[in-house]
Write a structure and sequence with these properties.
With 177 residues, this protein is of the alpha/beta class. The protein has helices at residues 19-26, 40-49, 92-101, and strands spanning 2-5, 30-33, 53-55, 68-73, 76-81, 106-109, 116-120, 123-127, 145-152, 155-164, 167-176. The strands form two sheets. The protein has a six-stranded mixed beta sheet with strand order 3-2-1-9-10-11, with helices on one face. The chain has a five-stranded mixed beta sheet with strand order 4-5-6-8-7, with helices on one face.
Length: 177
């Protein structure tokens, strides 16, 4: 399973990634962060904790990270890009174009702080939302959110996870890949 988080914004807008999310990430074979850690020590904490960890630079990250990454998992090509520079934020056609440029079937992205799972131009676009519930320019503070992603029998299964009143709530979206 791939655990996907984004937009932690620690310490500027939030204090910590919830323990409940660490428990999900601890069960994953790969952890992905779509950018906006804010402080390098937050990145380092995750990088040291998870042997298989992929992270990209967000617009609030002022330390060295790649702007995008690609990887293959269970026969599916994935891309990771924060979403910086895409106007309007989270614009599906531009995100699908980004997936094309990265030669990815699935694109993990962040930046909007809004959890979304959608298909556009034969590309699966997954935004885990903000893992701390941090607000931002275009998003108000809300429940912390993340995703857990599996590939099963030619389908991508995206589990949309939110932490509400101390409980994990899960909703599933499926896509053919």
């Amino acid at each position: 399973m791939i655990a996907v988080i984004s937009d932690s914004h620690i310490p500027g807008r939030a204090e910590e990634v919830p323990d409940e999310f660490y428990r999900v990430m601890d069960e994953a074979s790969l952890v992905v962060h779509c950018g906006d850690f804010e402080k390098e020590k937050v990145y380092k904490r995750l990088d040291e904790r998870y042997e298989d960890f992929i992270a990209v630079k967000g617009n609030c990250d002022f330390f060295e990270l790649p702007v995008s990454e690609t990887f293959e998992y269970d026969g599916v090509d994935f891309g990771v890009y924060h979403g910086t520079g895409i106007q309007p934020r989270g614009h599906p056609p531009t995100l699908a174009e980004t997936a094309n440029k990265l030669e990815a079937e699935v694109l993990f992205h962040g930046h909007t702080h809004t959890q979304t799972a959608q298909e556009k131009d034969s590309k699966v676009l997954l935004n885990p939302g903000t893992c701390t519930g941090a607000g931002g320019l275009s998003a108000s503070q809300g429940a912390p959110k993340m995703m857990a992603v599996e590939v099963e029998n030619g389908e991508l299964v995206a589990e949309l996870i939110s932490l509400e009143n101390g409980e994990l709530r899960k909703e599933e979206e499926r896509f053919v890949v």
